[in-house]
Amino acid sequence: MTTAPIQLDTYKLGFIGAGKMAESIARGVVQSGVLHPSRISTAHSNPLRRSAFESFGVKVFSQNQQVVEDSDVVIFSVKPQVVKDVVLQLQPLLSKKKLLVSVAAGVKLKDLQTWAGSERFVRVMPNTPAAVGEAATVLFFLCTLFFHCACFCLVMSLGGAATEADGELISKLFGSVGKIWKADEKLFDAITGLSGSGPAYVYIAIEALADGGVAAGLPRELALGLASQTVLGAASMVCQSGKHPGQLKDEVASPGGTTIAGIHELEKDGFRGLLMNAVVAAAKRSREFSN
Ligand SMILES: NC(=O)C1=CN([C@@H]2O[C@H](COP(=O)(O)OP(=O)(O)OC[C@H]3O[C@@H](n4cnc5c(N)ncnc54)[C@H](OP(=O)(O)O)[C@@H]3O)[C@@H](O)[C@H]2O)C=CC1
Ligand SMILES: O=C(O)[C@@H]1CCC=N1
């Protein structure tokens, strides 16, 4: 039985938690054109947070309850430390008609479903480049195997009462702000440590590369522009060339040249190990948020 394709623009999207992650997703969704800003809402009392969303047409209520009542899809984008209280507070409004999403680091789906009194809940780990349509987002689906017409049909059951259409809806929504993957929930702490937190590691690298340029005599603006574009170009080469980053690195490092002199410095001070440690530490912190 074929179902009609999901029309994203017939849904209304609400954010509980009008912070950096919510704003990044909302900006990316609006920029992609898949949803008009008038069909997006959030709530905050702080004038700065209100104007941040109103500046691109998103409705800002004063209460969370109004957001839930106004939305078909509700994204919980508050900090992990408060998500339980917020979900419990809104529980009476979280009917099965609402598709619920959590972007909170470390908070397990089973707990979210319990607090909401609804199994129509999906976990998502996005990152802030959603704002420019370049997010790395991982979705957690509860996969249930059903016998269907004498063959296996892997049904993306998103948690009990969630449906395959819910999966398509969430995939389309987050697919509009970048690349999406699906993974088992047991990987989510590592995913959070890598791609959830990863933009911050790269921002530090860009800042440090620019500082290196300044130390070598470049004007700050030129150094920052070159550093940013070099990281963007290198990442694009990995994503588009199909080559391993090690091969791409070797293609830059001429024998006895400048690059290998720089790489030698990085290796002397354990550059790789430092990045690995950052991901592992962030994943460990994510695990601390689960009950
Ligand atoms: N930032 C990122 O790069 C990523 C964040 N996430 C996840 O997204 C979630 C939000 O993170 P982030 O956007 O960075 O955090 P922010 O602090 O920027 O945003 C959280 C927002 O929630 C608001 N808030 C606090 N309590 C309530 C409440 N009871 N009801 C409604 N809103 C409330 C805060 O308001 P106030 O400031 O007034 O307290 C704030 O505006 C977290 O769970 C995080 O793990 C996931 C991936 C990446
Ligand atoms: O720093 C944090 O906890 C959030 C989750 C992943 C990125 N930012």
Structure description:
It is a single chain. 49% of the residues lie in helices and 17% in strands. It has helices at residues 20-32, 47-54, 64-70, 80-90, 109-116, 164-175, 188-196, 198-215, 220-241, 245-252, 258-268, 271-287, and strands at residues 13-16, 40-43, 59-61, 73-76, 99-102, 121-125, 135-140, 142-148, 151-157, 178-182. Helix 2 links the parallel strand 2 and strand 3 (59-61). Helix 4 (80-90) packs parallel to helix 5 (109-116), helix 7 crosses helix 12 and helix 8 (198-215) packs across helix 9. Bound molecules: NADPH dihydro-nicotinamide-adenine-dinucleotide phosphate and (2S)-3,4-dihydro-2H-pyrrole-2-carboxylic acid (A1CAB). Residues 105, 192, 196-197 line the site of (2S)-3,4-dihydro-2H-pyrrole-2-carboxylic acid. (2S)-3,4-dihydro-2H-pyrrole-2-carboxylic acid (A1CAB) binds at residues 105, 192, 196-197.
